[in-house]
Amino acid sequence: LGLALCAASGAAFLYRDYCVLGAGPAGLQAAYFLQRAGRDYLVFERSHAPGSFFALYPRHRKLISINKRHTGKANAEFNLRHDWNSLLSHDRRLLFRHYSRRFFPDADSMVRYLEDFAALLELRVQYNTAIIHVALERDPRAWNGHYFLLTDQDRHSYKCSSLLVATGTWVPNVVNFPGSEYVEGYETVSTNPEDFAGQTVLILGRGNSAFETAENILGVTNFIHMVSRSRVRLSWATHYVGDLRAINNGLLDTYQLKSLDGLLEGDLEDLAIIKDKKGKLHITLRFYLENRNTSTGIDSITLPQDELDNFATRAPYDRVIRCLGWKFDFSIYNRSLRMLPGKGNKKKYPQIKASYESRGTRGLFVLGTASHSVDFRKSAGGFIHGFRYTTRAVHRLLENRHHGVPWPSTVYPITQLTNSIIKRVNEASGLYQMFSVLADIILLRENATAFEYLEEYPVGVLAELEMQTGRKAPNGLFVIIMEYGRNFSGADKDVFYYNRAVGEAQHAWQSNFLHPVIYYYKRLPTEREMRLRLPDWPLPRPDAVHHIVEDFLTDWTAPNAHVLPLRRFLENCLGTDLRNFFAESCFLFALTRQKLPPCCQQGYMRMQGLLGSTGLRRHAVEAGLLQDYSLTDFLGDRPADSHQGSQDQLLRDHTIPVRPLQHLVNAKDE
User: Fold this and answer.
1) Can you name the CATH fold of 180-324?
2) pTM for the full model?
3) What is the CA radius of gyration of the chain?
4) What is the pLDDT of residues 621-641, one digit of tens each?
5) How far apart are CA 41 and CA 18, in angstroms?
6) Which family does it belong to (predicted)?
7) Angle 564-574/417-427 helices, nearest 10 degrees?
């Protein structure tokens, strides 16, 4: 599609329905969904190729996103649970496993992967275009009551109805204090270990970039000290993949095993650095420098060790390196867009709603790493294996809002309710990666005879489900979500304690590891209920809740431990019998009951099911699921005019349907 020219306020604009800022993973993922839907869009990328962030970072080139190429399963959706690098597409060539054999891949493999993703799918990306200003133009004819006006570095102008921001967080975090001019940044520091041979190094920061830098020079330095405001957070304790990963934590070994290296806590804004005549860097505190003239030399300045002779950082350093991460670039947005930073530890991200739409401007959505404020330190929304699903969710919201395309759903008979849930919790990757954030929604039809299944909906906007999806929920709903135990995650938690796992179904609510949780609501929760929900609860208090007990293999298919308790929970909520029955039982129920189970109503009474056979009957008899009539009778050896023979003849009549083999396990009257 060619760009449409339009005139506005005497200036010429190139128009698109959707403008996407940034051709990183999130921008390309958004472009893929827009292209598959046949929408009018354009991606703007400031560099000459996609994924420019990965061309530089991480500096030491090893990604911490896992690339598990073998799982023992052939299910593609399940395998994505352990593939943290692939974007979603229909092209099987574009799985990251084809680009690297390493468990922790090289960043150059990611650059090559993103280039191929954009090229093979023929995504519409305009490279070498840096958007330097974004403003609003009010117009009641526009989708959202205004257009977005974009200006690039060459003063070319663009106009779009909806703006998708996928620029990530790329502006380095910098702390200013006296002497900060002597600090080297992570973005420019040497990656050659030999440049640090025999040196003493101080690193500011305590994230993966700080430990990655330390790991690179650990074997050549005199010692390394690391200073940060907060204590170290280990990802295996917090269950947050953005915290310190084991692949980078060598410094913890050398610290705790007393090999000179060490960690310190302190507010970086209280520090000061003084450089002596030999070029050594001395650490002091800011208040020591107040009302003093530092130009007179270090000898005239009081240092902490002058008063406390065992001050921890009394030894001078050869180098100080800043590794404090990145923040969102707010500078290009006009005040009219009200793109404001978050509060507290989310200030590096823009303020957005749980729907990923800007709090200040309708029609502006933030995707990818920059949208991580929704689930910061809770889930994986700041990383590829998380935001590939949240980006798809945003696309579905936009399809409903602007094009009248309802959220994709499938309608099943109520007899398939248990099977549908078991299937999803065992293979769905979006639920697994975006735990506590994305959920499957089951909308019940009238009289609970059928249900509508919606996948991976943002639970933060559950109260807006009917408006956001175009689906109705008048008869109650189930919400399927994945959760860790309430008290199992935290920087100070011992996650390896004895008896840390639960194995019995009756104690499923005490499960610690990631496991499925099913919430039942008789009506859709209101916005007020969502606001007033309990702290750390993803949803308000339900009418009923069920935990499927955690499983060491993350395989929730055990008939007694997983399936049976779930089925009974669903039956209690619906007031119906969800078991599957053979034709023999349905025939008996039809003669003796006023109301048949849904299985008999929707199967036997409609002449649906699997035709009987000798092998099927033998299997049922051996399993104790049918009365033990003689198999010779079933084969027709008894006299046809006898009463028993007539009964057997009826049971083996090929016009009477029998339930499929895969349902045999549920046919017992438990």
Assistant:
1) FAD/NAD(P)-binding domain (3.50.50)
2) 0.88
3) 31
4) 887 767 765 544 444 444 444
5) 4
6) Belongs to the FOXRED2 family.
7) 130
